[in-house]
Amino acid sequence: MKETLLRKLPAVEALIQKAQEKQFIEKFGREEVLKSAQRVLEDIRRAILDEKAPSLAEADLMPGRLLDEMERRLAQKFSPSLGNAINATGVIIHSGLGRAVLSRAAQEAILEAARGYCTLALDLETGRRSQRDAHVSRILCELTGAEGATIVNNNAAATVVILNTLARGKEVIVSRGQLVEIGGSFRMPEVMETSGAILREVGATNKTHLRDYENAIGPNTGAILRVHHSNYRIIGFAEEPGIEDLVKLSRARNIPVIDDLGSGALVDLKEFGLEAEPLVQHSVAAGVDVACFSGDKLIGGPQSGIIVGKAASIQQIKKNPLVRAFRCGKLTLAAMEATLKLFLNQKKLRKEHPIYRIFAADLTELMVRAERLKNELEDSLPSGTEVFIEDGGSYVGSGSVPTETLPTKFLAVKPQALLADDFARKLRFYVPPIFTRIQNDCVMFDLRTIQPDEDEKVRDAILKILKE
After folding, report:
1. Res 379: pLDDT
2. SS3 call for 135
3. Of 161, 256, 370, 441, which residue is 20 to 30 A from 453 by alpha carbon distance?
4. Pairing relation of β-strands 305-309 and 198-202?
5. Distance in angstroms (rounded) separating the CA atoms of residues 42 and 32
6. Structural domains in the chain?
7. Is the pTM of this model over 0.85?
8. Please, where are the H alpha helices in 398-453?
């Protein structure tokens, strides 16, 4: 039987000829089609000879079946692995799903910059080379009140280049309660070591006093660093000096103050019913030498790290060779400029900035969408499937406001013939993939993080998967 099946396998050249008729070679290239044919045939041979593999029939060896498998593999290989997804998790700034959703203005700016040549680093007046960060530095200064600004590819890079510039080989004083670990297991002590600065811990985990900083200052002190707690909070018997106190001490002792704000914020989150995050403007007004923060979290732009502060410090940082290694490309700069301009008009911010539009979404609006989806599903889902609406909370995500949630509405789906884990997995393999939560054997869809124009796609995915 095995020998018969092996003899039935077509030759590679026969498959190539059939693939040419189907225009595979024109679409994918002869070399890739040849490799695909060889691998498909090899896999079939292995399956025939494997005693544990399911039995194959002659129909499985027909050229048409083999060509279908070749096309599936080639399409998968040439399709982008980075694609659109639907976020139904309730985590608004989701690191795994690309963090902030870019505004339409930012998307259009990327397309415009990518269309052809662009004015990345040329001065229109003189025609000579200019600094690429000029596209964002002026507006950053206007929004924050800083004397100078620049941008690198993420906030970890911003922290490294600042420390390397201002305190390489010198001690940097940090409270023990601020030695945070950020995503990917990168810890502040390791970041500092990479920068060439020397960590000088002061205080205790829950309490650090101004006198702890003062007593730690010595001849080899390079800077005082304050680090925002980001993804955790110390609550209860806790205390640490404000940024104004640290600035006052640094001025008296003639050493710089660096404020790592983590997510950063240009608007007061209390307006959206959330715990306030440190405002960049507040740090600048307090007189810090340099502040840094992420551009892709509460700012809502592309991945980047923003540095603002005193003109002298910013100029010194921009001369550091690491800035070239960490610099941003034209697409990042185009998207960031467009994103920052949204903050110039606070009234339009809630409508045109996706993150703040999500923050501001009304519960009544979410309920209307949830009820519409529920009604449409109930009429078509298999008997026994339960669909209902639940109250819940959406998380800001990416280390911002870790202890609070925004009230939301969940569409909960409990299939009868499918486990919740299996249903969620099938949703992840849908096109576009849909990411959800699982709770009490139900798959939960958060209407706050699902974009309004994605409701129909979510409905169609649920129906298709559960009907199958």
Report:
1. 83
2. helix
3. 441
4. unpaired
5. 15
6. 2-78 (no CATH), 86-93+358-467 (3.90.1150.180), 104-345 (3.40.640.10)
7. yes
8. 420-428
Instruction: Give the integer Cα–Cα distance in Å for 33 and 15.
Output: 9
Phi, psi of 437, deg, nearest 5: -110, 160
Neighbours of 112 (CB within 10 A): 12
Which run of H or of E encompasses 293?
strand 290-294
Residue 122's CB: how many other CB atoms inside 10 A? Answer: 14
Q: Compute the distance between CA of residue 434 and CA of residue 330 in angstroms, rounded to an integer.
A: 30
CA distance 435 to 450: 10
The b/e string for 20-53 (b: 16+ C-beta within 10 A; e otherwise) is eeeebbeebeeebbbbbbeebbeebeeebeeeee
Assigned token pair, 154: 């993420």
Report the pLDDT value the prediction gives residue 144, as an integer from 0 to 100. 97
How buried is residue 60: exposed, middle or buried, by Cβ count under 10 Å (0-12/13-18/19+)? middle
Name the stretches of the chain with pLDDT < 70: 1, 53, 182-185, 231-236
From CA 159, how far away is CA 438, in angstroms rounded? 37
- Residue 76 CB neighbour total at 10 angstroms: 9
For 83, 167, 382, 451, 458, the CA distances from 464, given in Å and listed in that order, are 21, 59, 11, 20, 10
Q: Of all residues in the chain, what percent are helix, strand and coil, respectively (each to 5)?
A: 50, 20, 35
